[in-house]
Design goal:
By secondary structure, the chain is mostly helical. It contains 2 helices and no strands. The chain has one domain.
Length: about 70
């Protein structure tokens, strides 16, 4: 039983060393990705129709959404 505990402890320490090394050598970086259409056919008219359609489908409640993100 003692051998299993020793092995489990060694595996746990090894895994933690790997995680620490990875965090130090290649830390996680967060990025903000903004998706915007650059298509020539996607103009202000389509954008306004989309926004109007969303406003109508959500009704008066607005469902807590900020429709200005469509602009």
């Amino acid at each position: 039983m003692d051998d299993n505990l020793c092995l489990a402890s060694a595996v746990s320490k090894y895994a933690q060393v790997l995680v620490d090394t990875l965090d130090q050598m290649a830390p996680i970086k967060s990025r903000l990705i903004t998706i915007q259409s650059n298509a020539s056919w996607y103009g202000d008219g389509i954008r306004l129709q989309l926004k109007k359609g969303l406003e109508e489908s959500l009704g008066a409640s607005g469902a807590g959404l900020n429709l200005n993100v469509i602009d």
